[in-house]
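EI: anyone free to look at a 244-residue chain?
SC: sure, send it
EI:
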Amino acid sequence: MAFINYYQILDVSPDASEEEIKTAYRRQVKRYHPDTSIEPDSAARFIELHAAYELLLDPVKRQEYDEQHGLGAGGSVVPGTVRAGRRHAIPHYVPAAPVVIQMNPIVYSLAAEEVYTLFRQGILRGKAPKMESAAYYCHRCQYRWFVFLPPANSRSVPPPPPPPVQCPQCQASDWSEFLLLRCRHCSAVFEAEGPLREQSVHGQLRGRLFFPYALFPDCPYCQKPHWCMAEETRLGTAHSEPAS
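SC: here you go
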């Protein structure tokens, strides 16, 4: 089952009290209610907030959720050393089978060959400009926005517009690029958020891509080093090459 961090959606800690959850919900509903909000992703956020509020206010459902994901008063997910994405483990890897990974709020539907690459190498790069709700999603700043089209019954329906060149929030031109990483020790799959290159000046792509160990020296979940197979291979090759 895909992991959705309802505590993160409401912006409360896993040991938050019932009153703290209610307060957080009321605060965020004022911001994202579709009838009054000016946020472009208010409808999607409002649905997420309501689902989180319903589950966390039900003591039985909350206890089951906490036990299933190691959250709540009994424990917590270990935070990353930098901005890691949400953890999602692949408990049973099946060769030549696709996998759906929900990182909340975006969902990655990986083809069999992509799953194989992520499982064997511990790294997968690609592009995913849209969420399931059809909202555009920036992987650098996590901003979400919609492009509204005329209704289908219009006499003249123009073709869908091309994806934006830059994120309207942070101006990054690599906003649709993602980097998924997998720890070979604990099987956690997480997303590297923020800049993926050495420099990002005025939204322009500059410099070479960061290697995984430059972003996460240790796995942000189990804290173990040497977690990425592709990095171990790269470093082993680099050390074996004679110095020029």
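EI: The helical segments are 6-10, 18-32, 42-56, 59-69, 112-121, 212-215, 229-240.
SC: 👍
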